[in-house]
Amino acid sequence: MVLLLGLITLVSTLFGGLFALKFQDKLHLILGFSAGAVIGVAFFDLLPEAIDLGGKHYSVALTTSLVAAGFVAFMILDRFLEIHSHSSEDPCENEKHSSFHGATALSIHSFLDGLGIGLAFKVSPAVGIIVAVAVLTHDFSDGINTVNFILKGNGKSKTAFRWLLVDATAPLFGIASTYFFNLSEGGLGLVLAIFCGFFLYIGASDLVPESHHRHPTFVTTLMTILGVLVLYFAIHLASL
């Protein structure tokens, strides 16, 4: 059952990425939607899960502090690597570094998605299914976002597809890893809080500005709002 759900997450992520590859000429609109989707995942999925899992063991203040710490940590990482990329005479190299950061973060997050599913099933099948449904609601946008990060950094479609495969298979490795160790509910909640901060930075500081770059802001703003709303309703419908 657990591995089957992992395979479903793989298919969902692949479909999202292939969708982004097919409509590259509308990339700014997809980026706008992705920005809203990433922010929506952070607020409506990662943060509530972090508070729910960690709230039994830690204060909400600690959880939200780790969200802030994740945001600042990713900002420092992003700017530290940008400093090094500025030494390159090729301006495209800066974009490649940023794209690599985003695709890597999404792939690690997908690994944690699988980790969360596997650990949740160790708590109980009911909890496992709830976590799995929450993961599935945003896996499609994860695939879109992974491809977008590579394409906006002037990466080739083949490179984007390779990263898509990494992101799509990451949950399977996450699930498989839970057969070898255990992580407490509280510990998992803290990890999710940190990644919530990562995603808030990626959405607000990277995807939103990039989606508006050299394009009218009205339509892309609507797409960002649409991304937030789609994730909001998808996650809340899944929890009914």
Summary of the model, kept short:
The protein has 240 residues and is mainly alpha-helical.
Strand content is: under 5%
Quaternary state reads single chain
**Count of beta strands:** 0
Whole-number tally of structural domains: 1
SSE topology string: HHHHHHHH
What is the mean pLDDT?
78
Number of H/I helices: 8
Layout of strands and helices, then pairs:
Layout (H helix, E strand, L loop, with lengths): L1 H21 L4 H28 L5 H26 L5 H33 L1 H28 L4 H21 L7 H28 L4 H22 L2
What distinguishing features does this structure have?
single chain; 240 residues; mainly alpha; 0% strand
Report on the structure:
The chain is mostly helical and 240 residues long. It has eight helices and no strands. It has helices at 2-22, 27-54, 60-85, 91-123, 125-152, 157-177, 185-212, 217-238. The two termini are 21 Å apart.
